[in-house]
Amino acid sequence: MLDFFKKLALVEGVSAILLFFFAMPMKYIFDNPIFVKHIGMAHGILFTFYIITATFLKFNEKWDFKKYLIICLASIPPFGTFYIEKKYLRNA
To answer: Where are the domains of the chain?
Structure first.
C-alpha cells in the first residue's frame, strides 16, 4: 500500500503542477477554460484519493498525528508531495 501511495503522491503532484502552471494560465490569460475543466477534475479525484489513502496509511502504518497532518497539508501547495516523498516516504 505504501508503494501505491508513493506513486499516487507523484501523480497528484504532477496534476497540481499542470493545473496551477498550465491550465489556470490558459484559462485566465488565453481565455481557454477547457484545460481547467479536465485537469481540474483529474486533480480533484487524485487529491481525494491521496487524502483517503493517507488516512488509511495513518492507521495501517501507525503514523503519529503530526506526520499525518504534514503529509496531508503537503498536498495543497505545488511540489509539496515531492517533498513528502523525499522526506517521509523514501525510506519507508
So the answer is: 2-89
